[in-house]
Amino acid sequence: MSDEIKRVKRELKFKGKIIDFYQDTMEINGDHTVIWDFIKHKGAAAVVPVTDEGKILMVRQYRNALERYTLALFERGTQMAAERGLILVDTKYEFGKHNGEIYLMDEIHTPDSSRYFYSEGYQERFENGEPQKQLSKEFVREWLMANGFQGKEGQKVPEMTPAIVSSISDRYIELYEHITGETFVKADTDQLAERIEKNVTEYLG
After folding, report:
1. pLDDT tens digits for 116-135?
2. Which residues, including other chains, have CB under 8 Å from residue 48's CB and lie 6 or more apart?
3. Which of its termini does the chain have fewer beta carbons within 10 Å around, N or C?
4. Which residues touch 174 (CB under 8 Å, ≥6 apart)?
5. What is the DSSP string of 93-107?
6. Beta bridge partners of 24
7. pLDDT digits (tens, 9 = 90+) for 143-156
8. Which residues pair with 27 in a beta bridge?
9. Running DSSP on this structure, what letter comes out for residue 56?
């Protein structure tokens, strides 16, 4: 890895203002280039991701906050999972900003956004190079790929049989019961469309 850091200065127009924008680059092993994007923000260097179109996505004052929130959420999620015999392997969080405040959005630690492994037998399976017993929607992806769908252009989503749909529901229920420690009670599925419309309408007021 080269110790030499090259700095390039550019100008970007952001919200009607011209901002000095810098890129530091470092060569690694002769074939990889690491780039740090940053601006000088209120006297301090502020790391920012910048798109090819020159759009500034985030300044450090928000990046630092998001990092703290993310680590705290993951730590809490890991603790909750461990109490239920699970390992929170990875997840994602979605944030938004309104009036200068950061808000956490969308679902948290669900099988749609996270992967869980069972703690029991994890080390043994790991040492034997065996797949982990997990709770997530990964099995849905595997089923789709096994049936010729990888999300590529021109591919048609295969139709799921009632048995597959039922197995997906059972997996989600299994995760719900593991995380909450409560028994999941299935609701009556009669007049489902009417129930959805009623609940959404009531929520929107």
Report:
1. 999 999 999 999 999 888 88
2. 37, 38, 39, 56, 57, 58, 59, 60, 63
3. C
4. 135
5. -EEEEETTEEEEES-
6. 7, 36
7. 888 898 888 888 88
8. 33
9. B
Answer whether 139's CB lies under 8 Å from 170's CB. Answer: no
* Block residue for tokens 């099995």: 139
Q: Which helix (H) or strand (E) holds 18?
A: strand 17-28
For 19-50, give the DSSP string: EEEEEEEEEETTTEEEEEEEEEETTEEEE--B
Beta bridge mates, 101: 98
Q: How many CB atoms lie within 10 A of CB 88?
A: 20
Distance CA 75, CA 81 (A): 10
Give the global pTM: 0.59
